[in-house]
Design a protein that fits this description.
With 395 residues, the chain is an alpha/beta fold. The chain is 31% helix and 15% strand. The protein folds into two domains: 3-189 and 356-386, 3-Layer(aba) Sandwich (Rossmann fold); 195-353, DNA Methylase, subunit A, domain 2 (DNA Methylase, Chain A, domain 2). A seven-stranded mixed sheet has the order 3-2-1-4-5-7-6, with helices on both faces. The protein has 15 helices and 13 strands.
């Protein structure tokens, strides 16, 4: 079995996907205390170091790893400094959030793993006119004792069974002395899993409704729902946020694929402290009603207010967001559901939105495992990819 170290693990999306593919995580680390709680609930057997990675020494890692061989290091260093949403991204070469990338490289230098997988946002490719990605690739090519053969590609989550059109940069490196070339998983779906296919079997609750544990109101209607419910007997994390009647009336007026800007004159946001005047601040992503028969847009950390249920007049629940990220129903999220500005730790919504979709991570891991164990070979036939093929969970 191939051993992994999971850095910047968040709540464990990559850990889960790599685990499905048969990788054995021997250590995980993240700075967020609520991610640690969620990780411990779902991976009680994996040691977790909570804190700033730059504050941990190799001795602390070695004590946990206990002389086990490290085959792959995976993770997604914090990406805010690289994000397309950051309008100053071409002026952030000194952003301390980007420095954590070098902590990722440092850990590779410690253990010389056979391979690494790094995930990040598409904005990474355009930062400083492409100079940042060149620097990153150069660092990886010269990391460790042997250096790494490095390949970079943008992958779309919906191509791998995730009901979401999320795109992410994936960087894969394989140690040069192994004589292998990194490969990316082949596209698995011609048309993606839709929002309705992903969430229609969950309890249909209105704003302010839901309980900590709920029963399924119906049998799974498709293979995706069967996979999501494979090990679950109850529905967790499915409590709808409370909304004012003014907000519910706004939601009622928004059609599928439309958002707040489409109903602004009647239902636009009002100024704080002055409810008789419309706010002059407009956001196109606020209150977008999802289209039932298409994959969802990117489920970001702010998805609690970005999206409206395709049929119901409310925002998504944490569980619905988890379904759209491909987290199965037995994966339980800890910490506060939503977050006030003064509260510490990431909310359940933020943990879900920040995660790597497990099904996409699984496909990346499966391809990497094949290359490491069997070398560069022909890909699977097209027929093997076009039908839904849930991961065989290896335990």
């Amino acid at each position: 079995m191939l051993n992994s170290i999971d850095l910047f693990s968040g709540c464990g999306g990559m850990t889960l996907g790599f685990g499905w593919a048969g990788f054995n995580s021997v250590l995980a680390s993240d700075i967020d205390e609520n991610c640690e709680k969620t990780f411990a609930t779902n991976f009680p057997e994996i040691p977790f170091l909570c804190g700033d990675l730059s504050n941990f020494s190799q001795e602390e890692f070695d004590k946990i790893i206990n002389n086990q061989n490290i085959d792959v290091i995976i993770g997604g260093p914090p990406c805010q400094g690289f994000s397309l949403a950051n309008k100053k991204r071409n002026k952030v070469s000194e952003d301390p959030r980007n420095k954590l990338f070098y902590e990722f490289v440092k850990t590779i230098n410690w253990y010389n793993p056979k391979s690494f997988v790094m995930e990040n946002v598409k904005g990474l490719l355009s930062m400083e006119s492409g100079q940042v990605i060149k620097e990153i690739q150069n660092e990886f090519e010269n990391a460790g004792k042997f250096g790494y053969e490095v390949k970079t590609k943008v992958l779309k989550a919906s191509d791998y069974g995730v009901p979401q059109s999320r795109e992410r940069v994936i960087i894969i490196g394989i140690r040069k002395d192994l004589g292998l070339i990194p490969e990316f998983p082949a596209k698995k779906y011609e048309t993606g899993i839709t929002v309705e296919e992903a969430i229609s079997d969950l309890p249909q609750i209105n704003a302010g409704e839901g309980e900590e544990k709920m029963v399924y109101p119906q049998k799974p209607a498709n293979d995706y729902q069967k996979f999501m419910r494979k090990k679950a007997k109850k529905v967790f994390n499915h409590i709808a946020m409370r909304h004012t009647q003014r907000l519910i009336d706004r939601f009622k007026a928004i059609q599928p694929g439309k958002n707040l800007l489409d109903v602004w004159e009647t239902h636009g946001a009002v100024q704080r402290g002055n409810p008789n005047e419309k706010s002059k601040i407009k956001f196109s992503q606020n209150n977008l009603r999802l289209i039932a028969n298409k994959p969802a847009p990117t489920i970001a950390a702010s998805f609690q207010s970005n999206f409206i249920h395709p049929f119901l007049d409310r925002n998504l629940t944490a569980r619905e967001g988890a379904r759209l990220q491909s987290f199965p129903d037995d994966f339980i999220f800890e910490g506060m559901r939503t977050k006030m500005s003064w509260e510490k730790g990431l909310s359940q919504y933020q943990q879900i939105g920040n995660a790597v979709p497990p099904l996409m991570a699984f496909e990346i891991a499966l391809t990497l495992k094949r290359v490491l164990e069997n070398g560069n070979q022909e890909e699977k036939t097209e027929e093997q990819y076009l039908a839904f093929n849930e991961p065989e969970i290896i335990s």
